[in-house]
Amino acid sequence: MKDALDGFRSEGVVAVGVMCAVAKSVQATGGLQLIAKLLLGNPQGRFMTVLRMMLPVLAISAFLNNTPVCAMMMPILMEWGAARGVSSKQLLMPLSFATMLGGTITLIGSSTNLVAAGAASKQDPNFAMGMFDITKVGLINAAAGTLYVLVAGSKLLPEGELQPVSSVARAGETATQQAGAPRGSVRLWLTLALLVSTMTLAAQQPKRLVTVALGTLCILLRAGCMDLKDAWKAINGPVLLSIALSFALGEAIKKSDLATIVADKVVELVAPFGSLVLLFAIYFVAIAIGMVISNNAVVTLMFPIVVRVCEGAGISWKAALYALTMAASASFSTPVSYQTNLMVAEAGKYAFADFIRFGLPLQLVCMLATVPACYVLFS
Fold this sequence. Notes:
Layout: H1 2-5, H2 11-28, H3 31-40, H4 46-61, H5 66-82, H6 92-102, H7 111-123, H8 135-156, H9 167-170, H10 185-204, H11 209-222, H12 228-234, H13 237-255, H14 258-270, H15 275-289, H16 295-313, H17 318-328, H18 339-348, H19 352-378
Helix pairs in contact: 2-7, 2-10, 2-11, 2-12, 2-13, 3-4, 4-5, 4-6, 4-8, 5-6, 5-18, 6-8, 6-18, 7-16, 7-17, 8-19, 10-11, 13-16, 14-16, 15-16, 15-17, 15-19, 16-17, 17-19
């Protein structure tokens, strides 16, 4: 029973919950709308419109939880895209994918990164994934994904019908320009300043991320940047529960003979071809499992096996950790594989086959880009 409940005291689980609440304050104070208004601009043509959408979303998602980013950007992009002759079907699926790609750029960009850092720290107490340790491979992943979306989107995404354009959008503005700072400009800038401070401190001392984030959350609540009710809503209970229980299942795999049996078989089949092929095998298995279970569960379930595989092959598990983390975040090929996919599937009226047609090749592109990068950077 103790092992089953051990995941609930994991720093990775706590960090996910606290950072979701901190990110909520940016939405509550109108910071996300302000960023969107400043960065989207007035491009012309599908290529430039998608590019101008992707770049700010990648940057925002590197530091904020991607679910609220996707939720806030969807209505903005539908208006903004229609004003430029680009249908929502050409923008919403790339929006979801951009939030996932951006989440791989920093430690706090995705709950998957935090879960991976927590699992690695538990495996080796001397290991600490810094705020920007993942950035190099994350930027390569994001660049490859963005290039694919820009080039392949016009051919593989459905065209869709343009929605009516509001008078605001027709005038060349976005809907965000009507939204002010709902809690006042002082609280808006205080929130943005605290978020930057949190990232800076966490980058310098990654093991204190939870402490720093909790302190930030207390200041935000005390200053009225958001209500306690908003903070509780931002903490996704089912997601945290699944992460905590996945840790328990991962521990069971680690303590049973399953990890050893699977690891020995993988080493026997793949290790003779070298460590790069081994990393490709880990990535491929992770994206295959990620089609049916959550990305956080992929990390916690596979990590014990990955460690045993690497030990059996006589190589460091650090490169495999980053490859596994990248693969777990590549949930592109089905609408049910990630919550932002579900959100845009409904809003954009995408079919299941649309995700397979556009998302599956993106998984392969990201694999070809990031696995060699992990091999070079972390081996």
